[in-house]
Specification:
Elements lengths: L1 H22 L10 H14 L17 H11 L5 H22 L4 H13 L11 H17 L2 H17 L8 H10 L3 H24 L3 H16 L5 H11 L2 H4 L2 H16 L8 H19 L13 H15 L4 H28 L10 H11 L6 E4 L4 H6 L30 H13 L4 E8 L7 H13 E8 L7 E9 L2
Parallel strand pairs: 1-2
Antiparallel strand pairs: 2-4, 3-4
Helix pairs in contact: 1-4, 1-5, 1-16, 2-3, 3-4, 4-5, 4-6, 5-15, 5-16, 6-7, 6-14, 7-8, 7-9, 8-14, 11-14, 13-15, 13-16, 19-20
């Protein structure tokens, strides 16, 4: 037991040092990923007493804000909050993989698999997407399934229900413990217990929404909007093709890990592995590709981070291959060792090189720091601020929230990747009408117009109304344009309401 604890402490330190190495070159950059700003903003708004879906519109389930709120109460709400969360979640995820694989492999190979996970796509991972939160839950579910005990299967089921409150797509994760339940117990009572365990967190979330009068708004924003407007111009066939092609990122961004996982899956389906994993875990590993594919494919966009939930599974499959390789010929052992070295050398080399060359040192601010400093001087406590553009991190910098619930703009001004004559199908008319009415009756004291070349907004009726309002009712008082670390050119224009 003592040796297990010592090994886990050492592995934790190795994983922590590795992760910090990957992030060291970008610690000074104000915001790495605009979605980070949205994640922190929703947690900040809830902490200030705002009601989700009433005071802040979003098409996401907001269970994922629970960890952010917890971390925010410890570290405070700032644009660095998700950096702290990312460190904790990724190190814990890597440690979880080590604990799982340490049961079946030598510790060296288990550590290699954990390092392959934590180094995947590094040092080029921008921000901390929600999918990394789900990864930790997925890994714990796999650990619990490996025990094969009914109590642990119920705990895994409970966690799959929690994951569903984080993201609609995580509904598919309920299949993992369900497969384990089918293999271990066939009586009706076991399935009733499964359903009850899964439903605990979703029912708590629904109760919170019902008590706060947000149940209908939640349904409209998280089910009706994604199903009708989020994919408004995409046919079912186009959505399927996009979901398939989306998975190219597994091979273009994590080629070494994908190669090991491919061979590992071949071993999984061709060898019984009866002495390696419990029956519930083996069955779950066999169905996991369908689940993970569905979770990534139904997102409605071609974003690489949708495939992040595959990474724990790929690392486990790599571990399965290591188990097979050490029992094989010297040639196979050597080839596997070479792939591991290549897979780990690349991210570590780039991480060290970015620090050594100071490649990102010149990108101290993209303009957001200066805008926040200006507004802190100019705004009174009674002034309101609205940002026309996807930069919710500015609200976080100022410790303020939007006077309108349309802070993400997605319902009224589709993201720039949507183009063509069918762009209007992605706009929710009800929300558009309500936004324009708010702008007319209670215009904000300050309005920031944010654009970023070359991804300039493609327009919408709401955008046209804002442009008209800026000309007729506002005066420009500050503007700044800088180059960001990705080569884009963010531009902030600050306007004050003419009284």
């Amino acid at each position: 037991m003592k040796s297990d604890l010592t090994a886990r402490v050492i592995v934790t330190l190795i994983l922590l040092a590795s992760y910090l190495l990957f992030k060291a070159s970008v610690l000074h950059i104000p915001i790495l990923f605009y979605d980070d700003g949205e994640m922190i903003y929703h947690a900040l708004a809830i902490s200030k007493g705002h009601i989700p879906y009433i005071d802040t519109h979003t098409h996401h389930f907001l269970g994922y804000t629970i960890p952010t709120i917890i971390f925010g109460s410890i570290f405070g709400y700032s644009t660095d909050l998700l950096r702290h969360m990312g460190t904790v979640f990724q190190v814990c995820s890597g440690l979880g993989l080590f604990i799982l694989l340490d049961r079946h492999l030598s510790r060296g190979w288990a550590l290699f698999a954990a390092l392959l996970y934590i180094s995947a796509r590094e040092p080029w991972v921008n921000g901390f997407p929600l999918q990394y939160e789900l990864n930790l839950i997925i890994i714990i579910i796999f650990i619990l399934l490996d025990s094969g005990q009914k109590r642990d299967l119920l705990l895994a089921t409970l966690l799959s229900g929690l994951a569903f409150t984080f993201d609609q797509r995580a509904l598919a994760l309920a299949t993992l413990p369900l497969v384990g339940m089918v293999t271990s117990a066939r009586d009706k009572r076991a399935f009733l217990q499964f359903g009850a365990a899964w439903a605990i967190f979703p029912l708590l979330a629904l109760s919170y929404l019902w008590l706060n009068g947000a149940l209908v708004a939640w349904w409209e924003q998280t089910f009706i909007f994604p199903a009708k407007h989020r994919v408004g111009s995409l046919s079912l066939w186009e959505s399927l093709i996009q979901g398939l092609t989306l998975h190219r990122y597994l091979f273009t961004q994590t080629p070494w890990l994908a190669a090991l996982a491919f061979v590992g899956f071949s071993v999984l389906i061709s060898h019984p592995l009866k002495n390696t994993f419990s029956v519930p875990l083996r069955r779950a590993l066999l169905v996991a590709p369908l689940i993970l594919f569905a979770m990534a494919a139904v997102g409605g966009r071609d974003y690489d981070y949708y495939t992040i939930t595959w990474l724990p599974y790929l690392a486990i499959l790599a571990g399965i291959f290591f188990k097979y390789a050490v029992q094989s010929s010297a040639i196979i052992q050597g080839a596997s060792a070479l792939i591991v070295v290549c897979g780990l050398m690349e991210p570590f080399y780039h991480g060290v090189n970015l620090i050594r060359t100071g490649y990102f040192d010149k990108y101290q601010s993209d303009g957001s720091v200066e805008v926040a400093a200006f507004l802190k001087k100019e705004m009174s406590q009674d002034d309101s601020l609205f940002i026309w553009g996807y930069r919710l991190d500015l609200y976080v910098r100022l410790g303020r929230t939007s006077p309108f619930p349309d802070s993400t703009l997605l319902f009224i001004n589709p993201d720039w990747v949507i183009e063509g004559p069918l762009r209007w199908r992605h706009i929710a008319p009800k929300f558009e009408y309500e936004f324009i009415e708010r702008m007319i009756s209670a215009p904000p004291s300050f309005l920031i117009k944010f654009t970023r070349a070359p991804n300039l907004p493609r327009g919408s009726p709401a955008n046209s109304f804002v442009e008209k309002s800026l000309l007729e009712r506002y005066k420009k008082v500050f503007e700044i344009e800088r180059e960001d670390y990705l080569g884009g050119k963010p531009r902030f224009e600050v306007y004050r309401l003419i009284k």
